[in-house]
């Protein structure tokens, strides 16, 4: 069973205006009805954890689902504590554009911006490991 949170009372994650515009565009062209952005964490990367994002039309047991700026955001139970209070953003620069996660729980981050570490949190053993070059 999924739980749906009212973003006015609880905002475990959010999305910026630029992130929302880009996400809605990607979701619209995905062909998936009722899809949203799934933010998840996996162990690996040069700092311990890696962010992952996908367009997903499934809601799994234990997922937290909320809407921000018209975008459905989905986070699984294991990832939620690591991204509590984070904001998904979309940035454009000379190297191109891409989604990024502004995470208040990250105490350090890799230069590539795809991996991070938290105070006292260890990555789960056996879930894979990769360096910055393999995001």
UniProtKB/TrEMBL annotation:
An example Pfam family from this entry, by short name, is Fe-S_biosyn
Specify the Core domain's residue ranges: 15-113
Highest rank taxon of the organism: Bacteria
What InterPro entries does the annotation carry?
ATAP, ATAP_core_dom, FeS_cluster_insertion_CS, HesB-like_dom_sf
Q: Which GO molecular function annotation, any one, does this entry have?
A: iron ion binding
A single BP term in Gene Ontology? iron-sulfur cluster assembly
Gene3D superfamilies registered for this protein in UniProt: HesB-like domain
Protein's name according to its UniProt entry: Iron-sulfur cluster assembly accessory protein
